[in-house]
Structure prediction request, 762 residues.
Amino acid sequence: MVSKRMFLAATTLAYGLALGAAMAAEPLSVMSFGGAYQEAQRKAVFNAYAEATGRPVSEQEYGGEIAKIKAMIDSGNTTLDVVDVDAPTLLQGCDEGIFEPIDWEKIGPKSEWLPGTTSDCGVGTIVYATILSYDEEKLANKPTKLADLFDLEKFPGKRGLWKNPATNLEFALLADGVAPDAVYETLSTPEGLDRAFAKLDTIKDQIVWWEAGAQAPQLLASGEVTLTTAWNGRIFNANKEGRKFGMVWDNQILDSNFWAIPKGAKDIEGSLAFIHFAVEPKILAATAKYIPYGPVRTTAAAEVAPEDARNLPTSPANLTTSLTLDNAFWADHGDEIRKRFTTWLSN
Amino acid sequence: MAQTMSLATPLSRPDLRAALRRAERPNRLRALALALPALLFLIVTFGAPIGLFLTTAVRNPEVRHILPQTVSTLDQWDGQGVPGEEAFAALAADLARAKENSTAAALGKRLNYESAGMRSRIMSVTRHLGSFADGPLAPQFIALDPAWADTELWAIIKRNGAPVTLYYLLTAVDLGQDATGGIGRVAADQAVFLDILGRTLWIAGLVTVATLLLGFPTAYVISLAPARVAGLMLLMVLLPLWTSLLVRTTAWVVLLQTDGVINQVLLALGLTTEKLQLMLTRFGTVTAMTHIQLPFTILPILSVMKSISEGQMRAARSLGAPPLAAFWRIYAPQTLPGVAAGCLMTFILSLGYYITPALVGGPRDQMVSNFIATYINRDLNWGMAAALACLLLVMTLSIYLAFLRIVGAERIKLG
Prediction:
C-alpha cells in the first residue's frame, strides 16, 4: 500500500511537472477495442493515469477499422490523442503515414520490449498468444510440447486448427524442428514452404478447422477434437467458466497490440506522456489482473502476481520457445500462400 | 401512286410488319413511359453500380498515377537487362512524392500481387530515400535489395504502366503473364479458381437435381389434391420461403452438428454407433441448399401442372395406354416448361450461394461467392473480387442463354 502510494506520488510529480497545470484539465482522448479488453485498460491504466496526473481520459471504442482513423485524419481534424491498434493495422498505418513517429527517448529503452513489439510509430502494449490446448478431464496423458499436435500415435483423434495459413505453417515448421528464430527465413524459401505443408499433410485427415476464436474451446468442450490450437484469452475465459482446459506454452505464437498516435494529434507531447505512463512496468502488469494478455515489456513481468503470471504468454517460463508472428512476412507473402493453402485444403 | 401499288400487289410481309410497328409505337412509348421510373431506379441503383464495380477488374491506376516519371522513362527501355540510372532516378523521385502523399503503400500492395515481396521492397526504398548518398542511385537500390537488379521486377513495373490490366481476369481463370508478357498457366499450387468454379457448378447441379427429384412429386401431389388440402400443402412449401435465409441455414446447423438433433436421433434409435460428421461436409451443404431452393423449383412446376387438363390422362388410358406410359408420354412432356423454369431458377440462384456454404460447408465446399467476399472484406483486393464476379456473371449468362437455345424461350414458364 505504501509502495503504491509512493509510486503514485512519484508519477504524479513527474507528469504534473511535465504537463503543466493548464494542460492537465484538458481530457486526453484515447480509442481502444472496447469490451473486456478496454474495461481492463480502464481499471489498470486510464483511471490510474487520471489519478496520477489529474488529466482525465475520455474514451472511445472501435472495432479495429483503420478506415475510421484514416477518415478522421483526412478530415483535417484529429481529435484523438492515442489509439490502440493491432499489429497489421500498425504496419499498414505506418506504411501509409497515418501515425506519428514515436520518440522512443520519451518512452523507454527499446531493449526492454519483446522482439517485434517496437516500431517507428507504435509502442507494444500487450501480447496474446496462439497456443496448443486440450481438455484435462479427457486426456490422461497430457501433451507437453507443440510437436504433440502432430503426434497421432501418442494423441490419436481430431485436431482443431485455425482456418488460416498464418500460425499453422509456423507451427508445422516448429514441430518439424526448426528453431523459432529461423522459422520465417525457412518459410521464405520454396523448400521451407513445401516442408511446412508436408508436415501439415501428416495430420490433414484429422484436422477440424475453426474460424471464429470462440469455436476452439467449443470444439474441446464438445469432445469433437482431442487437441486444438486456440487463442489464450479464449481458453482462459472457458476455464473461468469452470472448464479445465490445459495450455501448452511450448512454441506459442505471439502477436501484439500497440499504442500509436494518429497523424496530426493536437498534443503529441501529452500523447507520448500517456503512452510512457501506460507502459510503465507496474501499470502494464496491473492490466494482467483483469485480462490474460501479457505485458510486452520484459521488466513488467516481475510485477505480475505469480497466480496471474501462470496464465500469461509473457511469463518468462512460458516464453522460452515462443515465436512472434511476423506480420510483415504475411503482408508480403500472404496472397500467394493463402492461394496455395486453399488448393491444399481442397485436394 | 403508292396506293395503286398497294392495291395492285399485296403488301410484302416486312412492310406489313413495319406498318404494324409504326401503328403500335405510341402504345409502346406509353408503356415505356409508365415503366420508366422502375427502369431508371434499376439503372441507378443496380445496373450502374454493378457496371462500375466490374470495371475495377481491369482498372490499373496505381503504377500510372504513383510512378508517372518511372513509367515514361521505362517507355524507352527495351526490356533487356537492368534499366539505366535514369530509371532509378525517376523511381526515386516518384517514390519521394509517394512518401509525401502517403501513396507508397497502395503501390506496394498492387505490385505485391504480381510478385510477392514487392510491398516490402517498395516500402523499404521509400523509407531509405532520405539516407541515399549523392551519386548514382542504381547501386544503392541494389545494395538495399538485390532484387532491384532483376529484369523481371522492372518488366512488371513497365507492364503495369498501362491504364488497364488483364492481371485480375487472367488470375481468375488461373492464368498469368511472365516477364515478356506471354500468357501461361500459373503454378499448380496457385491454381485455385478454375477448381472453385467447377465446384460451384457441380454443387449448383447437385442441388438442382435434388430439388427436382423432391419437388416434382411434391408438385404433382399438390396439383392432384383437393383445393383445401392443396392450399395447406402450398402454404407449407411457401412458409420456409418467408423465413430469412440465415435463420434457415442456422437451423440446419442445429440439426446437422455432431451433437445435433439428427445424430442424437440416430444414436437413440441405434441406427449408428458413433456420431456422423454431417456438418462441414458436401452432404450437409447440398442438403441445406436443397431445402432452401425447393420452393423455387416446386412453384413453376406446380403452375404448369395445374394447367394440364386431367382429361388428357383419362383419354390416354381409354385409348389403351398403361398408367405409367400415359404419365410419361402424355403428362410429363407437358410439364417440361415448368421443370425447365424451376431447374433454371434453382441452378442460377445456387451459383451465387454464400451464407449456406460458409456456415454448413467445409473448406472444400466454399463457392465462388465466398472468395469474392474474402477479397472484398479481408484482403481489400477489389480488383480480384470484381474479376471473379465478372466470371460468375458471364458463366451465369452463358448458361442462361445456352438453356434458352436448347429448351426454347417460349417453353420456359416461370410461374
Remarks:
- Chain A touches chain B at residues 92, 95-98, 163, 208-209, 222, 224, 328, 331-336, 339-340, 342-346 (CB under 8 Å).
- Chain A has 14 helices and ten strands.
